[in-house]
Design goal:
Chain lengths: ~110, ~110
């Protein structure tokens, strides 16, 4: 499959900032393994002020389906719930308590 | 050189939104060539609300120096000035009228 690039954004609660950073320096290996199984690669998260941006590449053919299936794996669900508890909604996206997907408006190989 | 990954953020003026998007669907080829010359690759820009996130990879050994040198090339400077005019400062970074660099807090190959 051709590589697809995803950008996503969320905000970090001040009181969870250090917790989130420490956990992302040492993500549970089982979670990383499941990401690799669904063909996610080259995944970075960046932080500035309380804003976070995630960038990842995906080489499958059903991103939403693969992500939803992965989220149902108990250890992934446990991890995700701990991380969602660190988030504040992105501006104008208060109905979404986790990452919001962004639109790619430029690409240079 | 090993690949280095950079994330950067800025906000887009509402009245310049369409202009910026249209120009980034069709960036001046001379600007893209200069980026490639300094070993920038896999460069994406994402937009959500008025927030923009840029992700790029760099394979040189002096990112700040290479970027500063490139910015002095007249056609690049002209492009950059047009684009900076589209930006609002990132929250808490009002002294910077262009992209602010973010901290990478996670990476998975």
């Amino acid at each position: 499959m051709a590589t697809q690039r995803y950008g996503m954004a969320v905000r970090l609660k001040d009181e969870k900032r250090e917790y989130y950073i420490e956990n992302h320096a040492n993500v549970w290996p089982e979670v990383l393994e499941e990401l690799k199984k669904i063909n996610v690669k080259n995944y970075s998260i960046f932080l500035k002020e309380d804003f976070m941006f995630g960038y990842l590449e995906y080489e499958g053919d059903n991103f939403d389906g693969d992500m939803a299936t992965m989220q149902k794996i108990p250890i992934v669900e446990k991890w995700t719930n701990l991380m969602i508890d660190c988030f504040n909604p992105f501006p104008n996206n208060e109905e979404n308590n986790s990452w919001v997907m962004m639109d790619q408006i430029f690409y240079m190989e």
